[in-house]
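User: For my dataset I need records formatted as: sequence, then structure tokens, nothing else. Please produce one.
Assistant:
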Amino acid sequence: MLSFITELFPAVYAEEKHEETPAEQQEEAAPAAEEEEPEDIKPEIEEACGEDAACLPLKHHLEECNRRVQEDGAHEDCIEELYHFLHCVNDCAVPKYFNKLA
């Protein structure tokens, strides 16, 4: 019975060298021939939307709040201004993402 099991499940040892077949060598070479990953367009789109006329007033409020906190030592945070600015940027950017994907 032991010989039956060894026939079904041959022993494999870590020290054995595996000779690659030509098909396996071609499979390894194939990923190198693939195209490079496309450039991420998200930062560029978000930067442009941050400078959009609709978002500029919100950006100005955020920068003023940051200045007050850093220079004057105001006891506040600028989370609300940040959320409003990011919301504006996202509203501007999302349709542009999908236009680039299509």
